[in-house]
């Protein structure tokens, strides 16, 4: 085996964000760019000698080429085995599951999640550790340090490996094992959920549509929903993964999955509909005539998870990211279980799940998951909802109303201002920070910057977003996205609680309008960004 050492000079800005390194595809295609990051990762984890990795991605443009580069580099760095999804495909939760099931040392996942794919769109890579979850900040910080001083990388001069056939191939001294991307994941879902009950629900005429958005969940949803559970053919929409996701944004929210939302809002729409994103870790849940916000979805699932066999023994606790609404906390309080508030980023849930402190986790950004893997999981959320509906024999709308009548309703929305000039965005945040000290403006109880101390390892993460607490209990949060690839994205998260005996059916944006006005007065957001309205409202 001829290991080749190639010299390179460091690239600026290879700092992993909320979820790995995300950049424009053309940036990743610059000679040596991907290699510099991958070698820095291998060096940060103490080398590859004798190790096993899982490698796969969401199938977007450059996925296939990047995997070949990674396999050659892993072999040259001494790895023993790489387990790769057939044709390079693995959803993020399926990759997490494979890392755990096969006791791999880690995994490299190629995705820019819900961002569009294509040569002029986005690409990304992240490293997951042996528990199947995203590398914690201690590891990503080391990777970034290494990128700054890197001088070369190791590779092999071998030809591309055929990833279309299941089986094993040798690359130098490393074995490449190509596996079916769906099999292990589907088996896990069958362990967790009452498939007989879901099958009976579907057989009884309960109609479902699942929009895979031309992304990676297509094969998973087709095999499980239409195959094992017997939903009619055509239940899965846009089920073939495409390198450019059909030129869409594979982002399951009411803007980018509008056709699906229109469908459930129509007279003859399905009883239940859902969508997942580029790499299969996000979800959107809809019922006939209703959109379930991710924060409510987490709370409803927390209150009902015991109806699924995998969670029948109850939950140890529920964790949510700080900007997620406090609906889940109300469920935890009533049930007498732990409630945790973490910074944005699934990596912060890893320790809580490993330590058995939390069982369910969720984020406002359409992510829900549990201790079955160490990533959020789109299709898992869909199956848990179906299990709950099969067991309670109620519509989505009735389940939600019943929930609000029990716990009250947290009216909630996120407003995004995208591609804002970075200096302007940073100045808005800095000014808000400076308002946190001194006399509070009228109507505001407290402004603070969220910082988190991990209850398991004691690590501290500071500056995780500005929180504004209003008199009367409303809350607004402002932070800059860590996943964008162009300028800055300002995220404004708005939340207003109404008790069970209050008005539970106000239009969300109407309910939150006074809060939007108060924040605009406080920050001058619209004038400073030059926008009349947000680009996205979830
Ligand atoms: C990633 C992270 C999530 C986070 C989301 C948005 O999701 O895994 O934890 O909530 O980004 O982050 P930000 O607000 O910083 O843009 P995904 O689905 O993009 O991998």
Summarize the structure.
By secondary structure, this protein is of the alpha/beta class. The strands form 6 sheets. A 7-stranded mixed sheet has the order 2-6-5-3-4-9-8, with helices on both faces.
Account of the protein in words:
With about 550 residues, this protein is of the alpha/beta class. The relative contact order is 0.11. It has three domains: about 180 residues, Alpha-D-Glucose-1,6-Bisphosphate, Chain A, domain 3 (3-Layer(aba) Sandwich); about 220 residues, Alpha-D-Glucose-1,6-Bisphosphate, Chain A, domain 3 (3-Layer(aba) Sandwich), CATH 3.40.120; about 130 residues, Alpha-D-phosphohexomutase, C-terminal domain (TATA-Binding Protein, 2-Layer Sandwich), CATH 3.30.310.50. The model has no long low-confidence stretch (mean pLDDT about 95). Helix 2 packs across helix 5. The chain is about 35% helix and about 25% strand. The strands form six sheets. It has a seven-stranded mixed sheet with strand order 2-6-5-3-4-9-8, sandwiched between helices. Strands 20-23-24-25-19-26 form a six-stranded antiparallel sheet. It binds 1,6-di-O-phosphono-alpha-D-glucopyranose. The site of 1,6-di-O-phosphono-alpha-D-glucopyranose has 17 residues, from loops.
């Amino acid at each position: 085996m001829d290991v080749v050492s190639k010299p390179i000079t460091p690239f600026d800005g290879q700092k992993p964000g909320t979820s790995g390194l995300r950049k424009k595809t053309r940036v990743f295609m610059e000679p040596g760019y991907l290699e510099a990051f991958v070698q820095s990762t291998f060096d940060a984890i103490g080398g590859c000698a004798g190790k096993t990795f899982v490698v796969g991605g969401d199938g977007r443009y450059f996925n296939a080429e990047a995997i070949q580069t990674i396999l050659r580099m892993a072999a040259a760095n001494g790895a023993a085995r790489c387990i790769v999804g057939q044709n390079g495909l693995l959803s993020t939760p399926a990759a997490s599951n494979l890392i755990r099931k096969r006791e791999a040392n880690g995994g490299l996942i190629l995705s820019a999640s819900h961002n569009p794919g294509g040569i002029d769109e986005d690409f990304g890579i992240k490293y997951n550790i042996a528990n199947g979850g995203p590398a914690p900040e201690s590891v990503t910080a080391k990777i970034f340090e290494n990128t700054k001083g890197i001088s070369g990388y190791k590779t092999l001069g071998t030809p591309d490996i055929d990833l279309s056939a299941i089986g094993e191939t040798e690359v130098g001294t490393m074995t490449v094992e190509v596996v079916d991307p769906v099999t292990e994941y589907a088996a896990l879902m069958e362990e967790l959920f009452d498939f007989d009950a879901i099958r009976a629900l579907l057989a009884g005429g309960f109609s479902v549509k699942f929009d895979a958005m031309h992304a990676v969940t297509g094969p998973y949803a087709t095999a499980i929903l239409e195959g094992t559970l017997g939903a009619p053919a055509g239940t899965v929409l846009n089920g073939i993964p495409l390198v450019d996701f059909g030129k869409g944004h594979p982002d399951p929210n009411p803007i980018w999955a509008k056709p699906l939302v229109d469908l459930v809002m129509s007279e003859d729409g399905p009883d239940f509909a859902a969508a997942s994103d580029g790499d299969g870790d996000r979800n959107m849940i809809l019922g006939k005539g209703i959109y379930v916000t991710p924060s409510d979805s987490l709370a409803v699932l927390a209150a009902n998870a015991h109806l699924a066999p995998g969670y029948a023994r109850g939950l140890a606790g529920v964790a949510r990211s700080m900007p997620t609404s406090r609906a889940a906390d109300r469920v935890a309080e009533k049930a007498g279980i732990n409630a945790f508030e973490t910074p944005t980023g699934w990596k912060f849930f890893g320790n809580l799940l490993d330590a058995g402190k939390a069982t369910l986790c969720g984020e406002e950004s359409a992510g829900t998951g549990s201790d079955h893997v160490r990533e959020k999981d789109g299709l898992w959320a869909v199956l848990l909802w179906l299990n709950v509906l099969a067991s309670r024999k109620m519509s989505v709308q009735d389940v939600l109303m019943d929930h609000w009548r029990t716990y009250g309703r947290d009216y909630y929305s996120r407003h995004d201002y995208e591609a804002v000039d970075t200096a302007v965005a940073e100045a808005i945040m800095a000014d808000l920070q400076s308002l946190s000290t001194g006399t509070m403006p009228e109507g505001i109880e407290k402004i603070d910057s969220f910082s988190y101390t991990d209850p398991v390892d004691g690590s501290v993460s500071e500056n995780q977003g500005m929180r504004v607490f209003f008199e009367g209990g409303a809350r607004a949060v402002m932070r800059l996205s860590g996943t964008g690839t162009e300028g800055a994205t300002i995220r404004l998260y708005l939340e207003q609680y109404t008790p069970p005996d209050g008005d539970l059916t106000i239009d969300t944006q109407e309910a939150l309008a006074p809060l939007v006005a108060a924040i605009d007065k406080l920050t001058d957001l619209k004038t400073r960004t030059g926008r009349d309205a947000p680009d996205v409202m979830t």
